[in-house]
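TASK: fixed-backbone design
INPUT:
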């Protein structure tokens, strides 16, 4: 088993994903424990992979549930929340395919939209308002580019990995701002 995506919870416990390779496809569930491993508690019981956890300001945990889709032969991600005690699992938006969500300073959820996404998990950069889930704002990600791993900055900008949809293109680090996209580090010859 591999333990991934650790975060500290407000009560001092550590939340993480535990990945196992039993059966046809890997599975991952969210667990929490005290530092040192005591009081281990399994929080999720979904099929598929529960990964990419982050803490919301209200104490809930936002994570991606990845499920294998036999028809499209690819993993489909959706954003879910859960209370830190394992109760109250809820979808952010039932029809939204998304991954790698993080709360922004203004309370929105920045995430990678997976609708029509590439097989590498990249997609359009988007944001959702938590209180009005119908308010989805595309931030970036026109057809020729893909985004991954968004990280909201205190000033409202978003640091993320970005690539263009061309043969041999690699992901570089970019900063999304309300007025445009700025390179942070993107040196294809380094890869």
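OUTPUT:
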């Amino acid at each position: 088993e591999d333990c991934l995506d650790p975060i500290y919870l407000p009560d001092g416990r550590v939340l993480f994903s535990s990945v196992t390779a039993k059966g046809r496809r890997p599975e991952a569930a969210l667990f929490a424990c005290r530092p040192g491993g005591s009081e281990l508690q399994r929080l999720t019981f979904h099929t598929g992979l529960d990964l990419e956890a982050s803490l919301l300001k209200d104490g809930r945990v936002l994570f991606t549930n990845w499920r294998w889709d036999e028809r499209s032969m690819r993993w489909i991600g959706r954003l879910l929340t859960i209370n830190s005690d394992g109760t109250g699992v809820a979808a952010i938006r039932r029809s939204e395919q998304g991954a790698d969500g993080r709360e922004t300073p203004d309370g929105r959820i920045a995430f990678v939209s997976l609708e029509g996404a590439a097989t590498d998990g990249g997609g359009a950069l988007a944001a959702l308002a938590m209180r009005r889930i119908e308010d989805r704002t595309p931030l970036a990600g026109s057809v020729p580019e893909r985004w991954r791993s968004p990280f909201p900055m205190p000033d409202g900008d978003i640091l993320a990995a970005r690539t263009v949809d061309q043969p041999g293109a690699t992901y570089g680090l970019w900063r999304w701002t309300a007025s445009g996209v700025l390179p942070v580090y993107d040196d294809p010859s380094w890869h």
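COMMENT: The chain has a mean pLDDT of 84.
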